[in-house]
Write a structure and sequence with these properties.
Blueprint: H1 14-34, E1 39-46, E2 52-56, H2 64-88, H3 95-99, H4 102-111, H5 116-119, H6 124-142
Antiparallel strand pairs: 1-2
Helix pairs in contact: 1-2, 1-6, 2-4, 2-6
């Protein structure tokens, strides 16, 4: 992509991007809270360009359960965004955009710090899929949807 060209994986409409980002960041915070991760006072923010930040404690202690909770909350942003996009018939985030995102990079880095015992003869890919599924389940169970945030489809 050349300088000045629009990234085709991002929504053209700034209002749509704001809505998607709001749901993305809410997904992180709701799932972090559901797993009893500490939320930071900075809260959640979305700027006028549609860039967002969810503030929860992402530094796990040295235990596998703590690392697992952080990974699940990190995956929850895109899981909530995908759910919202589907409900509103917006295009889903581009798969390459997702796997190259800072969220996925953070989650995978934390995943590599899980103990050998945690893996118990399973691959990193298998564990990642399981944790993504748990994240998606928590997003679904949270009730976070287009009907609950004050943003119309």
């Amino acid at each position: 992509m050349r300088l000045g060209e629009r990234n085709p994986s991002l929504p053209e409409d700034v209002d749509v991007k704001l809505e998607c980002t709001a749901h993305h960041e809410a997904g992180h915070v709701v799932v972090a809270a559901a797993q009893q991760l500490r939320l930071r006072l900075d809260g959640l923010s979305v700027d006028s360009r549609g860039e967002g930040l969810a503030c929860y404690c992402k530094q796990p202690d040295e235990s596998d359960p703590s690392r697992e909770r952080v990974i699940i909350a990190t995956f929850a942003g895109y899981k909530a965004q995908e759910r919202f996009c589907e409900e509103c018939s917006y295009p889903a985030p581009d798969a390459l955009q997702v796997i190259l995102s800072p969220d996925w990079c953070e989650a995978r880095e934390t995943l590599t710090r899980l103990s050998d015992e945690y893996f118990a003869n399973e691959t990193v890919a298998t564990i990642q899929c399981k944790l993504e599924s748990r994240s998606e389940h928590l997003v679904g169970r949270s009730g976070l949807s287009s009907r609950h945030l004050p943003l119309p489809c």
